[in-house]
Amino acid sequence: MVRAKVESGEYSSASEVIHEGLRSLQKEDSAIAAWLRDEVAPVYEAMKADPTLVVSAEQMQATLAAAYKAALRAG
């Protein structure tokens, strides 16, 4: 893949390809860390603080099935 990128002229050297790949990985890692910190952790903490917010998979499946059936009946 590195060779193909260089041969296509997209990059001038294998080193450039590797550096770009590492930059992309760092960007992705940072985005995942931010998502975990900003979105996942607060929800987890809220669920720990108030377990009544938690719905089991079975409850969710039943709710979705009922909504689907109601939508089918409504046309």
Give a description of the structure.
This protein has 75 residues and is mainly α. It contains 3 helices and no strands. The mean pLDDT is 96.
Brief account:
The chain has 75 residues and is mainly alpha-helical.
List the helices and strands and how they pair.
Layout: H1 2-7, H2 14-49, H3 57-74
Helix content: over 70%
- Using DSSP, what is the number of strands? 0
Name the helix and strand elements from N-terminus to C-terminus, one letter apiece: HHH
* Sheet/helix structural class: mainly alpha
Q: Tell me the fraction of residues in β-strands, as a range.
A: under 5%
The whole-angstrom Rg is: 23 Å
Q: What's the number of domains?
A: 1
Distance between the termini: 51 Å
Shape: elongated
Number of helices: 3
Which key terms come to mind for this protein?
about 80 residues, mainly alpha, about 80% helix, elongated
